[in-house]
Design goal:
heterodimer, A: mainly alpha, B: mainly alpha, MetI-like fold
Chain lengths: 216, 220
């Protein structure tokens, strides 16, 4: 039955945003673990580790996210797991986020000058202490603005999980659009809701870039 | 029972894959060409425009960069007809992709233009170059050279992102995959093959862009 679009529809779409956020946070958690491994491998002094990291980043950044989603969605069921879309999406988005975060963090790690390591060593810090007190504080400062910038990409790209049937904001929009037959207003509202999530983060990323650069 | 992979059914449909790949190539090429021009114009408005133009271009860039491509596509393809503007699938896809890429390109080129030191421009003017010559040789070309790697990688990412047009049933490579899937039921194999095709395409593009960089900017 076709009905008018009303406040209740807007309410349900706003509510569906929580699944967008859940998927973003899960992907951020999984992506951070993978990203940390990729970044340390990519910044390591061992050639084969660097090669492995480059291979991973190159492959993931060369495949459409949509294809990654489908490969994991169908692939995991082939291996014998029958999984809800949220799990398949979490795996696919973690793999995706891991490549991009890994590349950002690798850049931050190698941007800290070698002399900082040596300075740490010369005052008698162990490797772990050098990393903890000298290198990581500087690398985090470099890595934070682009990481927040990537978070915006991640939030926007969770919209693709709609195609494997995960009901987040975009999928809720499709359902509402089918029920109300008002695609123009529905997708305008959906876009506005994404904007309300992403724009503050974009601003934050830009502000961090200014303040953290001054602080260096 | 262990799953047996069967790629043969997928390769039997290679004609459909090639047709889809051809559409993806065309879509990407036109999007990159038009998107670059839109981005160049928007960046020029932000850097050189008056207050109104600047505000309009900034709004365009921020709205597009902070909303998902697939929602923009749905808004154009499903939403615009209710305002009386009905576009066919390919036109709607091209429009959405171009508008999207234009915003990202504008942001990249703007950064390049605003990083040209003021003193360079003054130096150019002081040795008697005209304003147009300064714009061309001191601002635009060095800025484009500086941002070329970011632009190239944005273009590659955009080519991969063209796969979303399959969701409004434009007949690109990704759409070919879903057709083959429905014929053969070899979903995992189909999407793996398509992922590899996209990967190959992105590698070729990266190589191509690097070669163009060496040719175009070698002596500057």
């Amino acid at each position: 039955m076709i009905r008018e679009i009303g406040a209740i529809d807007v309410f349900y779409m706003a509510l569906a945003m929580r699944w967008t956020l859940v998927l973003t946070l899960l992907a951020l958690a999984g992506g951070s673990v993978i990203g940390l491994a990729v970044a340390t491998a990519g910044a390591s002094s061992r050639g084969w580790l660097r090669f492995g990291a480059r291979l991973y980043v190159g492959a993931v950044q060369g495949i459409p996210l949509l294809a990654l989603l489908f490969v994991f969605f169908f692939g995991l069921s082939v291996v014998g797991f029958s999984l809800p879309p949220l799990v398949a999406a979490t795996v696919a988005y973690s793999v995706y986020a891991g490549a991009f975060l890994g590349e950002i963090w690798r850049g931050a790690l190698i941007a800290v000058p070698r002399t900082q390591w040596e300075a740490g060593a010369s005052i008698g810090l162990s490797f772990a202490e050098q990393l903890r007190h000298v290198i990581i504080p500087q690398a985090v400062r470099l890595a934070t603005p682009p990481s927040v910038g990537f978070l915006v990409q991640l939030i926007k790209n969770t919209s693709l999980a709609a195609v494997i049937g995960f009901v987040e904001l975009t999928r809720e929009g499709q359902l509402t659009s089918a029920a109300t037959f008002q695609p123009f207003w529905v997708y305008t509202i959906v876009a506005a809701l994404y904007f309300s999530l992403c724009f503050p983060l974009t601003r934050l990323s830009r502000r961090l870039e200014r303040t953290l650069r001054v602080a260096r | 029972m262990a799953y047996r992979f069967q790629f043969r059914d997928v390769f039997a449909e290679s004609q459909a894959l090639l047709d889809g790949l051809w559409v993806t190539l065309q879509l990407s090429a036109v999007t990159i060409g038009l998107g670059f021009l839109v981005g160049l114009a928007a960046a020029a408005c932000i850097v050189y425009g008056g207050r109104g133009l600047k505000a309009a271009a900034l709004t365009y860039v921020e709205v597009i960069r902070n909303t998902p491509l697939i929602v923009q596509l749905f808004l154009i393809f499903f939403g615009l007809p209710s305002l009386g503007l009905r576009l066919d699938v390919m036109t709607a896809s091209l429009l959405a992709l171009t508008i999207n890429l234009g915003a990202y390109t504008a942001e990249i080129i703007r950064a390049g233009l605003q990083n040209i030191p003021r003193s360079q421009i003054e130096a150019g003017l002081s040795i008697g170059l005209s304003r147009v010559q300064v714009f061309r040789h001191v601002e635009m070309l060095p800025a484009l050279k500086a941002v070329y790697p970011s632009l190239a990688s944005q273009f590659v990412l955009m080519t991969l992102a063209t796969s979303v047009v399959s969701q409004v049933s434009a007949e690109d490579l990704f759409h070919a995959a879903s057709i083959i899937q429905s014929r053969t039921f070899r979903d995992f194999e189909v999407y793996t093959v398509v992922a590899v095709l996209y990967l190959a395409l992105s590698l070729v593009m990266r190589g191509g862009f690097a070669a163009v960089y060496r040719l175009a900017f070698r002596r500057r």
